[in-house]
Write a structure and sequence with these properties.
- The structure is a single chain.
- It contains eight helices and two strands; from the N terminus they run H-H-E-E-H-H-H-H-H-H.
- It is mostly helical.
- Helix 3 runs antiparallel to helix 7.
- It is rod-shaped, with a radius of gyration of 31 Å.
- The relative contact order is 0.12.
Length: about 180
Amino acid sequence: MKSLKFVLALVVIASSISCNNKRKPQVQYMPDMYVSVPYDANGPTSAGGKIVDRLPVAGTVSRNGIVAYDIPNTNEGYEKAKAELKNPLAKDEKNLEKGKELYTIYCAACHGKKGDGNGVLSQRDKFSGIPNYKDRDLTEGNIYHVIMYGKNLMGSHASQLSYKERWQVVQYVEKLRSELK
């Protein structure tokens, strides 16, 4: 009988609590579960009371400093890039050396070490018709555009190369092109 009275009392108390005014704030059990603290994923964090910038995880690509590229992947965009886009980097040995390193990694397999279109994949008949740099009407802008979006059989390298690295490759391609003439 005591347990029945106890259960009845619990039902009455639960009913009275659940039927109160809904317009007033209610009592929350563990409020931190209901109202979480928002964090800015790219914002500063506290480390030992000191505000520091968050660094990317080792082996990942940092998204800080991304420069938007708003020229579309169309024939008109290609022509616009060819006419208007200019390399913002200084033409120096440091950029050329880095461009050569990146070209060797990403481009030489198809385009060849000299830019003559006779890379390893061409020699092994994996791809045919890889263009020679000297036979093409190229500018800084359309080289950059092709690195960004790709063209014909060449795919985009935008995800592999940063903004600065793409321009360094452009500088090196122009150097190879001048040596082929």
